[in-house]
Amino acid sequence: MATQTGKEAPDIVVRGGAENFQQEVTAGKHHLVADEPTSVGGGDAGPDPYDYLLASLGVCTSMTVGFYARRNKWQVENVTVSLWHSRIHARDCEECQTKDGMLDRIDVEVELTGSLTAEQHAKLMDVAARCPVHRTLTSEINIRLREADKSS
Predict the structure, then answer these.
(1) Do the domain assignments include residue 117?
(2) pLDDT (tens digit, 9 = 90+) per residue, 1-25?
(3) What is the pTM of this model?
(4) Which of 43, 44, 45, 135 has a Cα-to-Cα distance from 32 of 20 to 30 A?
């Protein structure tokens, strides 16, 4: 949808003041709050930015697995995705290309309940690793930062 300025409307709008960490997030008709925990000076009014990142990956993983199971008429009752974010020394990561400094690690644990064969379970775990958000986070990401046009 184009705005009055001719630009496409943003997917997400985040607004906040400089007096604290709390942010108001608008995603279409949905309104969310983000904040930092009190341990780092926030008010803990909502999830922090990394919580939202993990939630995005977890939601996409669960939706993708559920969709694949429904499409194949496999008997999946529940999909539970648990996620953890940490910073690790690159030298401690055997499968990583980066060997110096620190890097981010996201651990994802998927629990599937239902009447699945070993082959179906293995296929769903493979599908879980290919959800769109997982692919985005593991590919090259080009983020273009620019100042907003104040003439409109």
Answers:
(1) yes
(2) 555 556 788 899 999 999 999 999 9
(3) 0.87
(4) 135
